[in-house]
Amino acid sequence: MKTERLYYNDPYLLEFDARVVECKAVGDRIAIVLDKTAFYPTSGGQPNDLGTVNGVQLDDCVEEEDSGVVLHVVQAEIPAGPVHCRIDGTRRADHMQQHSGQHVLSQAFVELFNWPTVSFHLGAVTCTIDLPVDSISQQQAEKAEILANRIVRENRNVTVRYIAEENIAEAGLRKPTERTGDIRVIDITGYDRSACGGTHVRMTGEIGPILVTGIERAKKQSRIQFICGDRVVRYAREANRTLESISHTISSPPMEAAAAVRTLWDEYQRARKRIEELESRLMDYEALEFPVSNGLAIGAFKNRGIEKLKALASKICARPGTVALLADEGDQLRVVFARSADSTLDAAALLKKILERFGGRGGGRANFAQGGGLTGSADEVLKFAQDHCNGGL
User: Fold this and answer.
1) 243 class by beta-carbon count within 10 Å (0-12 exposed, 13-18 middle, 19+ buried)
2) What is the pTM of this model?
3) How far apart are alpha carbons 174 and 118 in whole angstroms?
4) What is the sign of the dihedral through the CA atoms of 72, 73, 74 and 80?
5) Could you give the CA distance from residue 157 to residue 71 in angstroms, rounded to a whole number?
6) Fewer CB within 10 Å, N side or C side of the chain?
């Protein structure tokens, strides 16, 4: 027995009465079957509705493909018999705006560039459509966005039609369908006609604004990120707050903030490069003055960072007959062992001894090795390394 779908003809229905005809286990969850339902099950890129059945929370709603039965996954078992159901109206309205907006935007790309939508996903934050082209420019996306919003403002009718399978070829659908029997078609007057089982608005004006928020490559196709309706308002509100915060921080008018941030970024990059040059020169002096005893340069640091530790070890070992044993205690204990070109120490072999004693991981070559994640203190590790250097490694 297929479940009667009330949302097919009335997507604005948010409360209804039905009967529980079966209760079954779906993995470790409980699912009930209703004789009829207004809950939309996940399908066609649109996620399921939420709500309650006799006050019991609905966690999921899915369709059994073979039987056509809709399974309502609930938090507690509900006995067979009559039930009263309530749909989360905010979630339903959002999904109607996003899905109807997708139809409008998809047809805009067809009209302007002859790019059909390959797939659609309605996410909790953003929606996406995939188009079969290598790249899409910002200008092309904006043209589609402009056309889509014009259709919204014209407040065209969005109607549900049922077309017999034998007549579907002449129906003028945006894309072919593999559905059989009487096929449910969403018709946006004079603009788009698509086979679809989703929930939709009555008039395009209810969609609200449509905004393209991103373009990216996805599996040799182009993915358009977009939002519609109330999501656009929330996005604009948050974007405005962010822009105001940036504006206040850099003391620039909001609409001039991008140029001001770019100027600050360029200045920061130049300053960072200059700081790196000065730090390198300072490290040259540090390496030159670093104390060396019996050919060993031993040092323990706090939060120096592995890259600076490696650079210092290399500079120290520019002096002949020198071995550098350096450790840094930061988020973990790290060590760097290095030797000058004329030294016979095997730094990799020394590190292996250290790792056997103090754990951790690492590797390297005879002239340079590094490791991290060691247990114990820097002083303990360096003392152990020094002893093994004196032992002839």
Assistant:
1) middle
2) 0.78
3) 12
4) positive
5) 32
6) N
